[in-house]
Amino acid sequence: MIIQNIVFGILLGSIYALAAIGLSLIFGVVNLTNFAHGDFIMLAMYVAYLLGVSLKLDPILTPIISFPLFFLLGMAVYLVIFHKIIRAPPLSQIAVTVGLLVLLRNFALAVWHAEPKSIPRTILGYSYHLGPLLIPADRLTGMLISIATFIALHLFLTKTRIGIAMRALADDLDSAALMGVNVRNLNMLTCALGIGIVALAGGILMTFQPVNPMTGLIYGLLTWSVVAMAGLGGVSGVLLSGIIFGIADAFTAAFWDPRAREITIYILFILLLWFRPKGLFGRR
Fold first, then answer.
1. Which domain holds residue 46?
2. pLDDT-derived band of residue 283, with 50, 70 and 90 as boundaries?
3. Does 84 fall in a domain?
4. How many CB atoms lie within 10 A of CB 7?
């Protein structure tokens, strides 16, 4: 039972990490406090549902279409909203992104109403049996996609000129600008990539859970908790943090109550801020 929940938590946590990595990119590189991130995940899940119902696509395949759409959405949001508040005080950033959160949530409520939406069938609706362990195919596929995304992102940030420029921007914006880095374009690309990755997480999540307009509240708290635990420790820090929260989620559902997952997230988040405000893997 314990090993089963650890395995389940690792599978789930890797998907949580994928949902949070876009927020970590935007927060680390652009230095923007985006409280609407959870509602972008909610919107991505609705888009996966819409594509699944209208085009008969399996949710796991919907990012083929939704990733480019969310990449462009990230560019648009940066140009219209984020660009104007990057240099603003944190309180102003919070106020603006909370307003965006409310806009997205009410848009979803107006279009899809409050009833949970789900796709009735998925090609991943089965499980593997490994001895006494049960491994759901949807979570396993999600974990593999997540790990592949993290590897690709790590290589992008460490081996390409644009990725290295992003890291330089995260470390010292003014020095990077003096060295010739186009700060505006790089910030726009970071926001586009961060929100684009949300489409991957949305497609994976729709394979095993429904979506409603309040889904963004849960994932907003969860992704910020994952990023806070990771600090500025890079890609691997977010992955490990997501797995920690995934295991905590699995044990809460198994030994307490599945409805208490938010309580567990809050407790971990408060303890983290109390004992390690810079995060477990933060460099600074």
1. 2-117+137-275
2. low
3. yes
4. 18
